[in-house]
Amino acid sequence: MKRRNLYLLIVILVLFLVMVRFVSEIGREEPGRLTVIRVIDGDTMVLNGDEQVRLLGIDTPEKGEPFADSATVFLAHLVVNREVTLKHDFRKRDNYGRLLAYVYVDDTLLVNAALVAEGLARVYLFPDDIINRPLIDGLIAAQRRALAANRGVWSVPVRAEERYIANRRTMRFHRPDCRSVGKTAARNQVVFDTREAALYEGYSPCRNCQP
Ligand SMILES: [Zn+2]
User: Fold this and answer.
1) Which of 62, 65, 145, 179 is flagged as catalytic?
2) What's the pLDDT score for residue 30?
3) Which is nearest to 59 in space by CA: 48, 47, 75?
4) For this structure, is 98 an active site residue?
5) Which of 4, 10, 45, 146 gives a 20 to 30 Å CA spacing to 138?
6) Which of 98, 144, 151, 168 is labelled catalytic?
7) What is the percent of the chain with per-residue pLDDT over 70, rounded to a whole number?
């Protein structure tokens, strides 16, 4: 009798484990294969199924600006007709409905960082998207190297200021006379002596005053 109870207990335990496994499989989202069919610009691509992906943590030059075309060509070369995997942060989509992601080719090459390393993209952070802090630190490190080597966008001469005012909440920095500075609360302001110092900390140039 005692042995029979033991068998019964084992059977129940096995059934329980199978059930737990089954339930956990249901909750798992099967991502499926994602292939890039074309790029729109240096930081936006289109997947099979017409889903658009905006690369997270970076910004490439706008159309017509220096290195905009180079960034587009470089991205296309890396991803078109390739299978990719996406890694999201706090926000999965932006206001345009595009997926926001870190994009890997062959599960190893982080496209976002490759663009920054070539000087074809600037680090462009949003305060909400900080879950993948190691990836962000990697982007900032790549930008420091590109900056030190005067690569890509960092080779374009820019009129220097005596100092720059950054906003620690928006992660942008400005020329002292930019209108945005007046709207920044004093407690959020960070002063830098040089543009490089702000860039080294991961701040991005304001799109209006273009420091
Ligand atoms: Zn500005």
Assistant:
1) 62
2) 43
3) 75
4) yes
5) 45
6) 98
7) 93
54 labelled catalytic:
yes
Q: With cut-offs at 50, 70 and 90, classify the pLDDT of residue 170.
A: very high
Measured in Å, residue 91 CA sits from the centre of ligand 1 at 25
* 3 Cα–ligand 1 center, Å: 78
> Residue 24's pLDDT band (boundaries 50, 70, 90)?
low
User: Comparing 161 with 32, which gets the higher pLDDT?
Assistant: 161
Q: Tokens 């982080």 belong to which residue?
A: 110
pLDDT digits (tens, 9 = 90+) for 71-120: 999 999 999 999 999 999 999 999 999 999 999 998 889 999 999 999 99
- CB-facing half-sphere around the CA of 2: CA atoms within 13 A: 0
Cα(68) to ligand 1 centroid in Å equals 21
Tell me, in angstroms, the distance from the centre of ligand 1 to residue 160's CA.
14
